[in-house]
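Researcher: I've been going back and forth with a colleague about how Copper resistance protein D domain-containing protein might be arranged in three dimensions. Neither of us has a model we trust, so I'd like an independent prediction. The organism is Pseudomonas mangrovi, in case that matters for your notes. Sequence below.
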Amino acid sequence: MSYAILLILHLAAAVAFIGTLFYQVVIWRAATSELAESSLQEVSARLSAVTRKVLHWVVLVLYGAGIGLAWHYRGVLADPFGSPFATLLTLKILLALSIVGHYLAIAVLLRRGRLTVRRNRLLHLAVLLQMLLIIVLAKGMFHFS
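Model: Here is an independent structure prediction for Copper resistance protein D domain-containing protein. You can compare it with whatever you and your colleague have in mind.
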């Protein structure tokens, strides 16, 4: 697949992923903070189910295209601290792997029945902050190198 197509797929999936998470962390929380738990539970459960189905595909495209783009820069990544570009790309990849780790933690906590509302919010906030840092690093890769 060409670099341009991988880049477009990666950017579109990143927009969808970050937008969805921003909606969940900021907008949904603010909009539902004063609703009764009984009215919120059913809508929240349905929204979560649909979000998971859609995001599985979005994440597959995001990380698949990201791997393809990283392969394009494999020579640069051979020396991860050899240039500002390589360092920023390496940090971006490490943050992307950290996000996977956070979602694995959510899955494990959910399976074990230990995912509290507070933990869920904190983990999602951490992921959102990491995503925002990835955006800054991505822009920096081409402006500081």
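Researcher: What would you highlight for our discussion?
Model: I'd start with this: The first helix runs from residue 3 to 32. After that, consider the following. The chain has a mean pLDDT of 93.
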